[in-house]
Amino acid sequence: MKTSLLPTIAHRLAILAYVIFALFPLYWLFKVSLTPNDLLYSEGVRMWPSRTTWEHYSFVLQHSAFPTFFKNSLIVSGSTAIIVTICASLSGYALSRFSFRAKYWIVGLMLLTQMFPLVMLVAPIFKILTPLGLTNSLTGLIVVYTAFNVPFATFLMQSFFDGIPKDLEEAAMIDGATKFTAFREIILPLTLPGIAATLGFVFTAAWSELLFALMLINGNNAATFPVGLLTFVSKFSVDFGQMMAAGVLALIPAALFFLLIQRYLVQGLTAGAVKG
Amino acid sequence: MASIDIQNVKKAYGHVQVLHDIDLQIKDGEFVVLVGPSGCGKSTLLRMIAGLEGVTGGEMRIDGKRVNELHPKDRDIAMVFQSYALYPHMNVAGNMSYSLKLRKTAKKKIAAAVASAASKLGLDPLLDRRPKALSGGQRQRVAMGRAIVRQPKAFLFDEPLSNLDARLREQMRAEIKKMHGDLKATSIYVTHDQIEAMTLADRIVAMHGGVVQQVGAPLELYDRPANLFVAGFIGSPGMNFLDATYANGNVTLKDGTVMALPAPLAVADGAKVTVGIRPEHVVMGGEGSGMAASVDLVEPTGFGIILHLSLHGLAFKVFTLDRAALSAGPSVHVSFPAQHLHVFDDKGDRCVAR
After folding, report:
1. Mind listing the domains of chain B with CATH numbers?
2. Please, which residues have CB within 8 angstroms of residue A171's CB and are 6 or more apart in sequence?
3. Which residue of B has its CA nearest to A188?
4. How confident is the model at residue A275 (pLDDT cuts 50, 70, 90)?
5. Could you give the C-alpha distances from B50 to A151, A170, B142, B162, in angstroms and in order?
6. I need a surface site. Which of A131, A228, A246, B302 has the fewest CB within 10 A?
7. CATH class of A59-266
8. For residue A240, how many other CB atoms are within 10 A of its CB?
9. How much is the ipTM here?
């Protein structure tokens, strides 16, 4: 078949335009992080500064509390992602496969939790966490993030489980597996793309969460990276160069994480399971 | 191998009863086919035997042991699914050996069992492949291999050939029959395809609306269907039915044609009955023999010819091997040999001789 050139070119151009649009802020972040402070305001708007420097990066890494923020964020986001994914796998499987009396109400309740603007909940949550000694602590953040992410992650996992034919676990049970063995050895390996997607989703959500981190944490010791970024804003000025350098550094783990799981995200693992 | 006893078994989902008092004794080594239209409960019954569905009432025994409450894994049965249900993340050998691994069989024994099953099914060169790299027929074979590696008490087949194309289905049908001849394994096979039922079964269980309609050897169901449902379901093209009244050993059709039956029936004179005759039993003759019918449609199948006739406004089919029928004129004459007539009473049950 002969494809005509014009629509193909138009198609590629449209994609290119979209990619540029999507990546431009990242480019700007990177550009500013390399611009020396004295050129930041003096050169006007330029696509690339006349002189570049890595000094913001070295400052951020050596003289700021950024490494602490980074470590805290990694702990909070990693733990949240893992805990949420384990809970969501189990509950998503239950919602997908079992019928039980309160199922309808539980699903309704989980939906309900997603309806409130988070700002409304800050005060009550603060009130609950204070006597428990969970304010100003990473554990407290992990608990809150887990609570907020489990419902959506459950629905996400449920849809992945729904996509796996029931015949497979029935076949496993007839082959001699218990329900849990069938879940562990047959269903879970096939849900890897779903697990990867859930991990990725929760990790990035926790990585970039600002509101609760800001409200529940004060002081640098337990601050996560989004809160830490605000320390670059001082009363009279904003250290744009350092802020952007920190931002670029903060992108690295998220990018690495997706690089690791992208294999599972794109892979159709169930291909060939049933039918022709 | 084992016998399977199904006594008074019922199944209900909430208030909807889908199986009514099923009674069935399956002997050791027997090949039983459950056949019926979709929604008749045949797959549900099979899944209950497998333990994938609970039993609402009655009792189910495998090898004399009550299994009503037993988990599928403890029933020691194997099942071939319509969708094959192969584990996509395991290769063919992994799929076939999974059940043995779960039973903690020694590695050497597993390898021997898989190798012997694979050679029986011609799967030796494919053992390292994943299911997605197999064709439909090969997947079907792997599903069978998974069932035979561990010599279970019984084989259950849930429409295993439905997803194959016609030629492959025919071939696999013969292979299943051959395998049953070799293994002599108790087998229960669910299908809606009456050819599969006729060719494979030692006994057929015809089901409709959650009720067993007739149990018997294939030819028994063909020759002496117990009721209108079985008469219409078994045989292709399906049996012709005509309304008639019975009197003194004769049936009278609506148009007044009187046909003598070989023996008087145990029904009252003047009772309304339904007369059935299979398309292949209708005799076509020349002018003056039997009833005149107009030809609506001629369907040559290659093997024979199906004529769609209309007899006094009633659609009617004839199957013949005589190619002269291809050039049949606008009307033909048909007659119904008395020994091939089936008579059913107004409830649809077969009328027995007095």
Report:
1. 4-232 (3.40.50.300), 240-344 (2.40.50.140)
2. B79, B81, B85, B86, B87, B146
3. B89
4. very low
5. 35, 10, 20, 20
6. B302
7. mainly alpha
8. 17
9. 0.85
